[in-house]
Design goal:
185 residues; alpha+beta; five-stranded antiparallel β-sheet; two-stranded antiparallel sheet; 5 helices; 7 strands
Length: 185
């Protein structure tokens, strides 16, 4: 780390530490990278999950704070002149961020799910394996403990979600691309 210019100190019996007052240099993004964020903002506004939109807006505020004034002006101009003409209905959901954390932490979640086919609420413990955005809807692909098989659950039909402390072993043989290929055969 010292080779990278980070000031490191040490104390006998106390280990190593980064010297007080040291700050990482601010991030520097190019105009093209800022323009990419504008397009992403428009796409995320149309994807329907409120948790993702909230997290992206928080990130965008932090990134915009690092921009110089002339860069901010350019980003605002481009943002006001970028539009998605997607006329499909936005299907709202609230659970994407929690499901992303569950996938990366391999933690089981409990859901109350509105089964459209049976016209009833079902209660499931699921092991999230992947997420996908299909036809304007977020879907979690998960191992359903009740059915003991991999199933798909639309996020907009989840009424309640509770993250448990129960860890699961990811199915090592689960490959998202292979999962989708299995529908073609």
């Amino acid at each position: 780390m010292q080779d990278a210019g980070i000031p490191i100190g040490s104390e006998i019996g106390g280990g190593y530490f980064i010297v007080d007052g040291y700050r990482l240099p601010p991030i520097s993004i190019t105009e093209e990278e800022a323009n990419t964020l504008v397009v992403l903002e428009k796409l995320i506004e149309k994807q329907g999950d409120k948790s993702l939109l909230k997290n992206f807006n928080s990130l965008l505020i932090k990134i915009k704070a690092t921009l110089k004034n002339f860069q901010k002006d350019k980003v605002e101009l481009l943002s006001s002149r970028t539009f998605s003409l997607d006329t499909n209905e936005i299907v709202e959901s609230n659970w994407l961020s929690e499901i992303q954390k569950s996938i990366s932490n391999k933690v089981t979640i409990k859901i109350t799910y509105n089964s459209i086919y049976k016209q009833e609420l079902t209660y499931r413990n699921i092991e999230p394996l992947a997420i996908c955005f299909v036809n304007n809807v977020w879907i979690v692909i998960a191992h359903c403990q009740l059915r003991d098989e991999v199933r798909e659950f639309r996020l907009d039909r989840i009424n309640k979600l509770i993250t448990t402390s129960e860890c699961f072993e990811t199915e090592n043989n689960f490959e998202l691309q292979e999962y989708f290929k299995s529908f073609k055969t």
